[in-house]
Amino acid sequence: MLVNHRVALAIKTLVLVDIPKTLWPLLKKNDIVITMGAGDISKTGPEILNLLEEKGLPS
What is the overall mean pLDDT for the chain? Predict the structure, then answer.
């Protein structure tokens, strides 16, 4: 299934713990989230998934 998204969003912050709660209200079904960077950014993907498991997608 090919989904054509016309919008890309970059969140630039020095505080990694803010990324999941900043991103959560913007997420929609079938969105793809890519995290890029160095160091602790690898922890952000699982934190986003945990938030989605707790709260689900925003309405």
Answer: 83
